[in-house]
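CORE FACILITY INTAKE
Project code: CF-77B
Contact: R.S. (postdoc)
Sample description: multi-component assembly, four entities in total
Requested service: structural model of the whole complex
Turnaround: standard
Below are the sequence entries exactly as provided by the requester. Do not edit them.
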Amino acid sequence: MSAIRVLIAEDQAMILGALAALLAGEPDLAVCARAVNGRAALCALAAERPDVLVTDIEMPEMTGLTLAAEARARFPATQVVILTTFARPGYLRRALEAGARGYLLKDRPAAELAEAVRRVHRGERVIDPELAAEAWASDPDPLTERERQILWRAGEGRSSAEIAAEVHLSEGTVRNYLSEAISKLGAANRIEAARIARQKGWL
Amino acid sequence: MSAIRVLIAEDQAMILGALAALLAGEPDLAVCARAVNGRAALCALAAERPDVLVTDIEMPEMTGLTLAAEARARFPATQVVILTTFARPGYLRRALEAGARGYLLKDRPAAELAEAVRRVHRGERVIDPELAAEAWASDPDPLTERERQILWRAGEGRSSAEIAAEVHLSEGTVRNYLSEAISKLGAANRIEAARIARQKGWL
DNA sequence: GCGCCGGCATGACAAGTGTCACGCGCGAGT
DNA sequence: ACTCGCGCGTGACACTTGTCATGCCGGCGC
C-alpha cells in the first residue's frame, strides 16, 4: 500500500512549511509538492498528479476557489480540500460549486487535516460541521441592497450626512435604513451592526 | 545538552498544531506546551517556565503584545518571539517595547522559525529585516495606553457608557480620551479613528 | 516649600445618532 | 379602481457623541 500523495498550496511560507511538517508526521501520507500561490500549484498539479490537493483560499495570483475549479476540470483524479480561516457560508458554497470535496477551517484541531485528507481520498466529502449547519440554517442575508450600501459606508466611519450625499438620499432616510439594519442584526448601534454584517459575510 | 523548551501560543488550532509539528522536527527544540489564547498562555508560562515563548499577535482574550509584556514582567527568563501575519511597524515597535526579542512574519520560510528560536535563546535579537527598515521610516504611535484601550473598545461598537464601566472610568473621561485620540489621528469620529489606528498597527 | 505636569473628573453645549409615527407616489395583484 | 407593499421622505424626540473650559490631586524636579 503506497502513501497518499498530497500537494499543499498556501501563501504564507511558514504556515506552508508547518502544514507540511504536520502531514509528514503521518506515515500514510506523503507531501509530494508545495506551492505558494495558485499558479505554482497548477504547475505542481500537472507535474505530480497528486491524490489530494490541500489549498488555502486567499492567495495571490489565483485564489484557492478558482484553483479548485481548474484542478477539477483538468486533473479530475485529484481531490480538493479547501483549508481556510474564513467560516463564510458564501465561500463554502463557491468551494462546493468549484468541485471541492472538503472544506476545513484553520481553527479546527490539527489532527483533522490528516483525517480529512484520508477521507477525501476515499471518496467521501468532509465539510466543517458547524459551517455546514450554519450554511443551511442561516437565513441568507437579511439586508437589502440599500442597507448594505449604507451600512458599509457607516462602517468606514462616515457620518449620516456624508453617506446621504454619496448615495443621493436624504439624511433622514439614511438614518432610517441604518436603524432598520441595526434592528435586523440585533446590534446596539451602526458600528456593531457593521461588525456583525462583516463577520457573517454580508458586507 | 538539553533541548530548548518552547511554548507556542496561536489561536488557530490547526496552525498551532502545524507549528508544533514543525518545531518537533528539530532535535534541539522541544515544544513543552501549547495555548490557543493569551490567558491560557499565561497559565502555561507559569506552569512550564519555557525557555522561549512563540506567540501570534491577534488572539482572543489577550493579544500577543500584552502577553509579551506580562511574560517579560513575570517570567523574565522566558524570551519572547512574536510570529505574525502583519508587517505593521506599529506592531513591531510595541512588540519591542513589550520586551519581545524576536519579530517574525508568517510569510518567511519555515526554517527561520527554528533558527529564530535558537538565536533568541542565545540572547540575540531577531527582527524581520524588511520590516525593521520600514519601522524607522514611519511615524511613531501617538496613542497612549489608555487611548488605545478605549479606542479599541469603541471600534468594537461599544458605547461610551459601556466602555466607562469596563475600564472603571467616568463616561466623560472616556469621551475625553476618545476626543483626544480622534484629533491625534485626524479623524472625524471614533469609528474612523479606530479604522486609521488599526490600519497603522496602533491598535 | 514651590511650580508644573499628567491622569482623571465635571459640566455644559452643539452636533450627530437611533427611533418612531406618519405621509407620498408608484407599480403589481385582485 | 382599489388596496397593498415598497422605496423614500419628513419631523420630532431622546439619547449619544465630540469638544472645551475648568478643576482636583498626586508625583517630580528644583
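Facility notes:
- DSSP finds ten helices and six strands in chain B.
- The interface with chain A takes residues 11-22, 24-25, 83, 85, 104-113, 154-159, 187-189, 191-195 of chain B (CB under 8 Å).
Invoice: internal transfer
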